[in-house]
Amino acid sequence: MAIRNFLDIWQLEASELREMLDLAHAMKSARKGWPKGRVDEGAPLDGHILAMIFEKSSTRTRTSFDVGIRQLGGTSIVLNSADMQLGRGESIGDTARVLSRYVDMVMIRANDHSDVEDFADAASVPVINGLTDRSHPCQIMADLMTLEESGLDLKGARLAWVGDGNNVCSSFIHAAPKFGFTLAVGTPDRYAPDDDDIEIARELQGRVELYSNAEDAVAGADVVIADTFVSMGDTDADERLEELEPFAVTEELMDLAQPGAKFLHCLPAHRGEEVDSEVIDGPSSLVFDEAENRLHAQKAIMRWCLDK
Ligand code: CP
Ligand code: NVA
């Protein structure tokens, strides 16, 4: 069997993604009320080791993958790239070949997306993208799981992304054709999503609409999604905060969406910048379910990667 990498949502079949979300929902409900350290029935990844490499900071990804592999019966090793020979110039390819001899699966959070692709090319074990400058596919699986839990049928739903057309936005664009929702993206022209991502979605018959203001994107949406205006690695914070300010999610902006529309944010959030406290701490917000579901969605991703 070919190695199963989870690098980007557009590379997977819609049926595989659907099976992952179904498994995530089932695993979550099967362990309702259990202590978080108890191993799932059948310990599906018993004996397996996950290595995690971090070139950037993380709270959710690090913890949810670590807890997730333990709940599946496996163990993990967390590696900060600065402490590795990688930080002193050892090649990505050699690092991948060496780690493949020790562990069963690797998750990487990297500055440069091409490093994750190069790592996967050289590795002989599955590789999972834990965020790059280009995408954040694990996050979107958790987000879509959360929306389904809230009762939303993704097929035909209208999701609005407002703010920076960044890595998280790209993964939503990749997911639109796979799950059948419409994605309306409102960004300043300068921070619009990459043309490559739009092309990928359109080739797959995805419905992605681009707007240069937040109001048109949010009008009639079932879900409004925000993320930081300044991502890890961005060096133009002042310009971004100024230009993106009109794209902040306020209660007034939420009022343009469908009544009862939900709010998502992958966290970490900056209250008073990309979202007002009244929204993120209000009744429409699903952000902590979203954070929890990183755990359940990634358990399904890991099981898919190892076909277990
Ligand atoms: N949403 C997310 O990926 O969070 P961390 O950066 O804390 O992992
Ligand atoms: N867009 C953000 C997401 C953080 C989880 C970043 O890349 O910093």
UniProtKB/TrEMBL annotation:
Localization (cell): Cytoplasm
Reactions it catalyzes: carbamoyl phosphate + L-ornithine = L-citrulline + phosphate + H(+)
A GO molecular-function descriptor: ornithine carbamoyltransferase activity
Top-rank taxon, per record: Bacteria
Pfam family, one: OTCace_N
Known EC number: 2.1.3.3
Residues that hold L-ornithine according to the record: N167, D227, S231, M232
GO terms under biological process: citrulline biosynthetic process; L-arginine biosynthetic process via ornithine
Predominant place of localization: cytoplasm
GO cellular component: cytoplasm
Keyword presence, Cytoplasm: yes
UniProt keyword NAD, yes or no: no
Protein name per the record: Ornithine carbamoyltransferase
PROSITE patterns (UniProt xref): CARBAMOYLTRANSFERASE
Family: Belongs to the aspartate/ornithine carbamoyltransferase superfamily. OTCase family.
Binding site for carbamoyl phosphate: S58, T59, R60, T61, Q85, R109, H136, P137, C138, Q139, C266, L267, R294
Enzyme type, top EC level: transferase
InterPro entries with a match to the protein in the record: Asp/Orn_carbamoyltranf_P-bd (IPR006132), Asp/Orn_carbamoylTrfase (IPR006130), Asp/Orn_carbamoylTrfase_sf (IPR036901), Asp_carbamoyltransf_Asp/Orn-bd (IPR006131), Orn/put_carbamltrans (IPR002292), OTCase_ArgI (IPR024904)
Cited function: Reversibly catalyzes the transfer of the carbamoyl group from carbamoyl phosphate (CP) to the N(epsilon) atom of ornithine (ORN) to produce L-citrulline.
Domain Aspartate/ornithine carbamoyltransferase Asp/Orn-binding: 155-304
Chain ranges of the Aspartate/ornithine carbamoyltransferase carbamoyl-P binding domain: 4-149
Pathway assigned in UniProt: Amino-acid biosynthesis; L-arginine biosynthesis; L-arginine from L-ornithine and carbamoyl phosphate: step 1/3
Keywords from the named record: Cytoplasm, Transferase
PANTHER family the record matches: ORNITHINE CARBAMOYLTRANSFERASE, MITOCHONDRIAL (PTHR45753), ORNITHINE TRANSCARBAMYLASE, MITOCHONDRIAL (PTHR45753:SF3)
